[in-house]
UniProtKB/TrEMBL annotation:
Encoding gene, per UniProt annotation: thiL
Descriptive protein name: Thiamine-monophosphate kinase
Domain PurM-like C-terminal stretches: 153-298
Residues given in the record as ATP binding sites: G122, D123, R149, S211
Function of the molecule: Catalyzes the ATP-dependent phosphorylation of thiamine-monophosphate (TMP) to form thiamine-pyrophosphate (TPP), the active form of vitamin B1.
Enzyme superclass (EC): transferase
Domain PurM-like N-terminal residues, every copy: 29-141
Pathway: Cofactor biosynthesis; thiamine diphosphate biosynthesis; thiamine diphosphate from thiamine phosphate: step 1/1
């Protein structure tokens, strides 16, 4: 819903983000119309952010916008989908100035170009509450080709695409609790692993992005697949910053458990049959076995899931 001022603002802030896509009709119609693409499925995902919950008051508006797109792009990457377009709902508090709104739109534009996304439509409101925004992203996969969470089979390997724990350490760094500027930057501006989507589609039996934490997200794959997941924490790939942090921890197993329990890594966790896993170029961190649930070990010792505090109720 929009008043006259909003129409002007939509045209100024958001129309450029359609990048001329004819499907968006310049944001002048009630809806967009996307022609069906024969032989492809649309993969659709949505994430919302709330000021003070998902980002702190005073965060740079362009980073807020780019992170909103990137957390959604990470879902598309995990599903093997090629980014296409998005819908945007945004609620502006009065405290968000014209400059802040323009910076937000500018951030969307920068990442729209970087990742090949066009804005297709959305909704704009004002709010007496905190700034909130949500994006619905659309991507394409060859028909039937979306990489599901439910395809893992006993005997498959479990792999991750990159460092684990940088999200939770990055949050601590962004809050000034630890001195790791590179991790703080990565937390504020994650890098979705879209580079992996083709190999994932051809080689992985199941995949998810690491947004809730490695153990939780690997657990989601196990649950959806009706299998048990066994993870070896000593095998986790770690960034230089995470290794520095871990070396300062009195209990290495507990430290690794914390890194594997934190969220916001935006790497991919997947499963693959051993003969297909090689070409993924990822790190093997465990196996899929018969049964249910998840078992986490450190150098052969089974860790108590309760002690890590990672269990999602
Ligand atoms: P309606 O009241 O019919 O739902 P609006 O007046 O809210 O429509 O929106 C008019 C047009 O502007 C629509 O094409 C809508 O998709 C677009 N639009 C509104 N807000 C946004 C936004 N935040 N991002 C992108 N497009 C938007
Ligand atoms: Mg309308």
């Amino acid at each position: 819903m929009s008043g006259p001022d909003e129409f002007e603002a939509i045209a100024r802030l958001f129309r450029p983000l359609t990048r001329g896509a004819p499907e968006a009709f310049g944001l002048l119609d009630d809806a967009a119309a996307v022609p069906a693409r024969p032989g492809y499925d649309l993969v659709i995902t949505k994430d919302a952010i709330v000021e003070g919950v998902h980002f702190p008051l005073g965060e740079a508006p362009d980073l807020v916008a780019r992170k909103l797109l990137r957390v959604n792009l990470s879902d598309l990457a995990a599903k093997g989908a090629e980014p296409y377009g998005y819908f945007l709902a945004v609620s502006w508090p009065a405290a968000w100035t014209e400059e802040a709104r323009a910076a937000f739109a500018h951030g969307l534009g920068a990442d729209g170009e970087e990742f090949g996304l066009v804005l297709l439509g959305g909704d704009t409101t004002s709010t007496p509450g905190p700034m909130t925004a949500s994006a619905t992203l659309l991507g394409w996969v060859p028909a039937g080709g979306m990489v599901r969470r439910g395809g893992a089979r006993p005997g498959d390997l479990v792999l991750v695409s990159g460092p684990i724990g940088d999200g939770v350490l990055g949050l601590a760094a962004a809050r000034g609790e630890i001195d790791e500027p590179a991790l703080a930057h990565r937390y504020r501006l994650p890098a979705p692993r879209l580079d992996l989507r083709e190999t994932l589609r051809s080689r992985a039996s199941a995949a998810a992005d690491v947004s809730d934490g490695l153990i939780a997200d690997a657990g989601h794959i196990g649950e959806a697949s009706g299998t048990r997941i066994a993870l070896r924490l000593e095998a986790l790939p770690l960034s230089a910053g995470a290794r520095r942090w871990l070396d300062r921890q009195p209990d290495r197993a507990a430290g690794l458990l914390a890194l594997a329990s934190g969220g916001d890594d935006y790497e991919l966790v997947c499963t693959a049959a051993p003969d297909r896993a090689d070409g993924l170029g990822m790190t093997v961190i465990g196996e899929v076995v018969a049964g249910a649930g998840i078992v986490v070990t450190y150098e052969g010792d089974v860790l108590d899931p309760g002690a890590g505090g990672w269990r999602h109720a």
